């Protein structure tokens, strides 16, 4: 397992933080990281720094990711639900409403507070669980949902998978964008 979540403004790398806080080590697979890096460069071209738009293009092209409203998180957790847009389901009003952001590391990812977006804008993407099953063979009911945070709409500040079975290729993509943004 590898975790690629980061927040540059807060000098936060989740796997380093997990090691410091709990002694958890996440092995780095240089071969897999190289494969992911090659795939990103093939799709986007070789650049010194990649933008939010580049990251979106990559996840859309490679994983059929589509954009959603961050506040509507619960409407996209499972696309095999009877109704995709169920208005009876609550919208989130704070980052802490999302389980992975309610853990200890939540303070490093602040996109929504008391119903209002913070100064870090968020691009929220979904990879459908059918695509995940096709890609990994895993029988997951969950979609993969990831966020890309930015202060200026161009520069990537943060990235985190907020719902997913662990998919190494996605996590190494985050690491690539951390290093090249």
In order across it, which strands form the biggest sheet?
2-1-8-7-6-3
Helix share, percent: 25-40%
Shape, principal axes of CA atoms: globular
Number of helices: 6
Unreliable parts: none
Sheet-strand content, in percent, reads: 15-25%
Describe the structure.
- This protein is of the alpha+beta class.
- The chain has helices spanning 14-22, 30-44, 52-63, 99-102, 129-136, 168-179, and strands spanning 6-7, 12-13, 66-68, 112-113, 116-117, 121-127, 144-150, 158-163.
- The strands form two sheets. A six-stranded antiparallel β-sheet has the order 2-1-8-7-6-3.
- A hairpin with a 7-residue loop joins strand 7 and strand 8.
- Helix 2 (30-44) crosses helix 6.
- The model has no long low-confidence stretch (mean pLDDT 87).
How are the SSEs placed, and which strands pair?
Blueprint: E1 6-7, E2 12-13, H1 14-22, H2 30-44, H3 52-63, E3 66-68, H4 99-102, E4 112-113, E5 116-117, E6 121-127, H5 129-136, E7 144-150, E8 158-163, H6 168-179
Antiparallel strand pairs: 1-2, 1-8, 3-6, 4-5, 6-7, 7-8
